[in-house]
Design a protein that fits this description.
Structural class: mainly alpha
Order of helices and strands: HHHHEEHEEH
Number of helices: 6
Shape: globular
Radius of gyration: 17 Å
Distance between the termini: 41 Å
Helix content: 40-55%
Mean pLDDT: 94
Length: about 180
């Protein structure tokens, strides 16, 4: 583990949320959003309505900006998200997790909690000068985002199968040369 468990979890969830709109809609309905939340261990308020789904979808382009901005821009976005949510960081322990940071209450609307969780996770990257861990997939034509939590900072491809495609293409290119 490179960062605290809640930071790594927040970064992974942020990337997954951003990648849920990669030209194809991966959050088409409330049931899919509910499954997304369950898979990632989200707790707290979940209204299960169209307004909430729209708010979560609308958050994705703003979160993608973490991968597009320079350090000062990322800091501005982190501060804006935290300020808009009136975030108040606190240590909490729940659902089998040891102490970790939450900056909103469980009753805060889902999209706001997601924005704050993303901001809290990215602020650790800023503080440790590790923004380089936010990348865009290197596979040609893929625009999905990558969070590189490897020790040697070597992750190049998204979790959407691009690494496998690149390996197969490289193998075929080598085989063709023989």
């Amino acid at each position: 583990m490179i960062f605290a468990h809640d930071t790594e979890d927040g970064l992974a969830c942020t990337a997954a949320l951003v990648n849920s709109d990669d030209g194809e809609e991966h959050l088409p309905d409330i049931a899919t959003l509910s499954a997304f939340l369950k898979e990632r261990g989200w707790t707290g308020r979940h209204d299960r309505n169209e307004a909430e789904l729209r708010a979560v979808r609308a958050l994705r382009p703003k979160l993608r900006e973490f991968w597009e901005r320079d350090e000062d821009g990322v800091v501005d976005l982190v501060n804006t998200l935290l300020r808009e949510a009136r975030a108040l960081p606190q240590l909490v322990k729940h659902d089998g997790w040891d102490y970790h940071l939450h900056a909103t209450s469980p009753s805060t609307p889902l999209a706001t909690r997601m924005a704050v969780e993303a901001a809290m996770a990215v602020l650790d990257l800023v503080r440790t000068k590790e923004l380089g861990r936010l990348r865009v997939c290197e596979y040609p034509g893929c625009t999905r985002v990558v969070i590189d939590l490897s020790k040697n900072r070597s992750k190049r491809f998204c979790d959407g199968g691009c690494g496998n495609r690149a390996a197969v293409e490289a193998y075929r290119a080598r085989a063709k040369k023989r």
